[in-house]
């Protein structure tokens, strides 16, 4: 991989009122966790932070999810419980972050600048 590019993996969850994003270490970690729930979330997620996109999709600006937003969507504001629901019901998205030109989707020739 060329210097300056780094893979970024996130899980996108399309909720009733908001879209939620969490960042994870890699696709394999998520798959292993789904097969073996004894694996700690700390070995799967890249920080215990949940983001909302205000229904603008996974590639737009992210804001931190408020406790009220989490409560409305997941019935709990406990971040561990919400992260588990996002991992279970969300879709994995792997992108390559190019430091010079933004984000490049794997398998897609379109570039976001």
Structure keywords:
113 residues, disordered C terminus, 30% strand, 7-stranded antiparallel β-sheet
Please characterize this protein's 3D structure.
The chain is α+β, with helices and mostly antiparallel strands and 113 residues long. The chain has helices at residues 27-35, 67-74, 79-89, and strands spanning 5-14, 19-24, 51-52, 63-64, 91-98, 102-105, 111-112. The chain is built from three helices and seven strands, in the order ββαββααβββ.
Summarize the structure.
With 113 residues, the chain is an alpha+beta fold. It has helices at 27-35, 67-74, 79-89; strands at 5-14, 19-24, 51-52, 63-64, 91-98, 102-105, 111-112.
Question: What order do the helices and strands come in, and which of them pair?
Answer:
Blueprint lengths: L4 E10 L4 E6 L2 H9 L15 E2 L10 E2 L2 H8 L4 H11 L1 E8 L3 E4 L5 E2 L1
Antiparallel strand pairs: 1-2, 1-5, 2-3, 3-4, 5-6, 6-7
Described by strand count, sense and barrel closure, the largest sheet is: 7 strands, antiparallel
> How many angstroms separate the termini?
20 Å
Please compute the radius of gyration using only Cα atoms.
14 Å
Low-confidence stretches: 103-113
Q: What is the approximate shape?
A: globular
Mean model confidence by pLDDT: 82
How many E strands?
7
Series of H and E elements? EEHEEHHEEE
Count of helical segments?
3
């Amino acid at each position: 991989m060329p210097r300056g590019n780094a893979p970024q993996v996130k899980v996108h969850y399309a909720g009733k009122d908001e879209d939620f994003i969490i960042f994870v270490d890699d696709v394999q970690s998520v798959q292993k966790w789904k097969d073996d729930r004894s694996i700690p979330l700390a070995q799967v997620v890249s920080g215990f932070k949940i983001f909302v996109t205000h229904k603008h999709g996974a590639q737009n600006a992210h804001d931190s999810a408020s406790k009220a937003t989490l409560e409305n969507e997941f019935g709990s504001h406990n971040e561990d419980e919400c992260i588990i629901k996002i991992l279970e019901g969300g879709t994995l998205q792997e992108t390559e972050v190019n430091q010079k030109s933004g984000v490049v989707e794997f398998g897609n020739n379109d570039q976001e600048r």
